[in-house]
Recover the amino acids of this structure.
């Protein structure tokens, strides 16, 4: 993960793109990166995921499109394939202000 172009510690998230509200409860715990910004998420089923990085651990509801939509332009949608390692670089983003 990068902050201002430099490796940074942050929380990485993976949100499945095909989640159906109240019928698919695949929720993945966020992963804290190392000091050098590297992280590893294991156990994802093949498919497309929205990956993003936050400055704090978020209590995000992956079934709430408003919460997820905030992160869409700040993350990357990537296809995860069975038996393959996916490498990506995420830019660190600040969590939204909570009223």
């Amino acid at each position: 993960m990068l902050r201002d172009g430099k490796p940074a510690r942050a929380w990485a998230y993976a949100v499945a793109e095909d989640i159906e509200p109240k019928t698919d409860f695949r929720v993945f715990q966020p992963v804290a990166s190392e000091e050098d910004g590297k992280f590893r998420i294991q156990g994802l089923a093949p498919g497309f995921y929205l990956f993003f990085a936050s400055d704090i651990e978020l209590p995000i509801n992956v079934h709430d499109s408003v919460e997820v939509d905030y992160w869409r332009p700040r993350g990357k949608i990537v296809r995860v394939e069975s038996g393959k390692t996916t490498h990506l670089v995420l830019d660190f983003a600040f969590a939204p202000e909570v009223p």
Q: What stands out?
A: The beta strands are 2-3, 6-7, 11-16, 31-32, 47-54, 76-80, 92-93. Residues 23 and 63 are 10 Å apart (CA to CA).
